[in-house]
Input
Amino acid sequence: MTKNMTKKKNVLIIFSDQLRAFDLGCYGSSAVETPHIDSLAEQGSMVDIGVSNNPLCTPARSCLLSGQYSRTCTGRTDNTLEEFPPFRRDVFPNKSIAEIFKDEGYHTSLIGKWHIGAHPKTVGFDNCVYPKMHHLNHNQDFCDNDKGISIVSGYAEDFNFRNLEKQLCGTDGKPFFTYYNISPPHMPFFDMPKEFIEKYSGKKIDLRPNVKRGDATPHDRHNFNIYMYDYLYYMKYFPENQYVKPFDIGEDFTVEDLYRCYYGAVAYTDYLVGRITELLKQKGIFEDTVILFSADHGDMLASHGIYNKNTLYEEAIRIPMILCNGGKVESKIGSLIDCMPTLLDACGIPVPDYVQGESLLRKRKSQEIFIENMSGLIGVRDERYLYGVQLDKTQQKIIDDEVMFFDCQKDPYQLNNLINDKSKETLKLISKYKKIIKNYHEKTEYTKMLT
Output
């Protein structure tokens, strides 16, 4: 290679599951210690307001890999339910980010959770090692390329890390594009290392103002068990290799205890990020690797009495978005569909016309982020406001354009819905956002799924 030739940078996406931005130090939290994620943000730059375009696993991940809204790249907005994806391509009518990097001479790899309705090799991944969809962190079933399905003893995250180590030694001199998925802080909380899940045990917890304290209702108890055991609880799923059988948690388990578990899972996530970045430094390739750290969606964790995700409230849609070694982020607000054009831009690769996102390395043309979910809620979030409407069952027609309107700057916990505010200023704003959401809805019609 001559001196005037530019060496291609490696690209690593570290994608966490159900991690909301509010619980990271770099996003202003003091509740959880996240030194490794904070260090990435300090060495790089971050989006102040990161937003999931669809706060649910499959559609959010599809947005990330396609640079398109979920209705456009998959023709649907709900989750994929197959345990392992079929070896066919039912999604992504256009080239995925993996396919583009592969065309540019990169070795492409998927490590960890997939949860998309097509086999990874059909959408551009040379190498793929991914678990069954059921969320287990210990003794998980994995599909390893063409080797079939096997049970991996020990923690899945350790297995994923070993695969990353192997990949860094086996790309035949090519730059790599790696999509690395960390399952925590997604439940089940019982199935994580004890040192982390008990890290905040007994410590005082300051709940968000939109979380109600008090005795847990049956609704709360049901969700507490889901957080603790996930599939093992609500699907009565007992694989032969599972070493712990789920049981109902005690009556004294509270929302505060739920937060302690979640904070421990966030700390575990941070530890895993630190292990990955340290490996890159040991290999001498950290500075030669563009790193994007983000998550598919957040977690309500009892805010507004809601658990999990799949809604338009801040706790569900707000995610971390950190870029390291890839240039300076110029956008204050960004979303998952912006990740693909940002990484292509950082590597000097042209962004295809079909990409619906914008590079975060440049000033945004549009400040509004379009959000949708499987329940037919759609909305727009900009630097200050969130406006949401309801679609019909076909998700084609707006049937209620007065669901929610929040001033997230003045009302960060969304306690005051302004949708019925009759002041002249508010009515003018609502009228403006009604036009914006109508435009987004009409321009992003569902594509026909591939066959």
The chain has two domains: 10-366, 377-443. The two ends are 43 Å apart (CA to CA).
